[in-house]
Design brief:
Bound molecules: fe (ii) ion
Radius of gyration: 21 Å
Protein name: HD domain-containing protein
CATH topology of the largest domain: Hypothetical protein af1432
Strand order of the largest sheet: 9-8-7-6-10
CATH superfamily of the largest domain: Hypothetical protein af1432
Order of helices and strands: EEEEHEHHHHHHHHHHEEEEE
Strand content: 5-15%
Structural class: alpha+beta
Distance between the termini: 15 Å
Largest sheet: 5 strands, antiparallel
Number of domains: 3
Amino acid sequence: MRLVSTDMLSEDMVLAKNIYCGECLVIKSGYPNIHKYKDNLSNMGIRYVYIEDGKSTDIIVPDVITEKTRQNCKNVLIRTIGDFRKSNSLKLVDLTGSLEQMISDISRNQNVQVSLMDISVADEYTFSHCVSTTVYALLIGKRKNYSKRMLEMLGMGTILHDLGKILLDSNVMFKEGSLTKDQFNYVKLHTTSGYEVVSSCGNVPKAAQQILLNHHEKLNGTGYPRGLKEHEIDEFSKIAAIADVYDALTSDRCYRKKWSTNKALDYLIENSGTLFDAELVRLFMQQIAIYPNGSMVRLSDGRLAIVKDQNPNVPLRPKVRVIGDEYGNCCCYEEVDLMEVLSLTIVESELEITESA
Ligand SMILES: [Fe+2]
């Protein structure tokens, strides 16, 4: 399995992972004529899909949670928020069940590094973002050896972290592009308004409530809403802040294309100790595949390759399958373990490459 740009879909490719639009399954994995839907997928804002072809059949892209769990969690969240809009009360039974499933998946997969997250259309960003952010937060919680109860509270607070956004004017909250100063000050209110809701509902644990209030606080006091400093911010919120920013940077938005894994991790490292808790960033990075299986990379000699497998503890040097020369022409597939060929490095990664050999 590998990830290719929608523009590069061709006759020999079979869809390898389901494509969803909201709650609807649009195209099921195994579909053989995916190239015929290039334009439709592009129009839906889907820029990449997982496919199987002769170059990648034996490459496995492990999921940290199953696709079923991810979709179920997103759908339950959509329903929970929809019910809240109508009744003004938060019914959390189903969401608690979904989080338990997510925690169970994450606990079962001991050594899986997170690969690319789900491929979804841009207008579904809000709910996909909440689910992905929760996965990332739980991975950090797992590394901290949190108990199941702690993980449940961390998960509940993280999945609801932006609840306040749906309570405020959506024209401002979901405006794509730059905001005026007044608009930005308005956006900041989503922290306090979300917190007020969950603290008055009475069924969200206090530790989880703090995440809604504090997930935009920064260690150096430059965050909002209260400008708290390092020791004043609870650990759950520090975790959610890392997960929230990482997922935002690595997601496609209408106004900005997603950053590569590498670039987003660099951002977290650069701001470790100033904006983000350095130890929590370190724990997070241990679980992210910098060059995920199935992604395309360019080697320092110009050749194109697909990442085949990871070398444990050496994330910058995976095993790769070379599929094209430096001019983009197909070549004999060659397996290269970058731990064994130290003269070669990866110079370009995943989504920066749009050519297919
Ligand atoms: Fe937020």
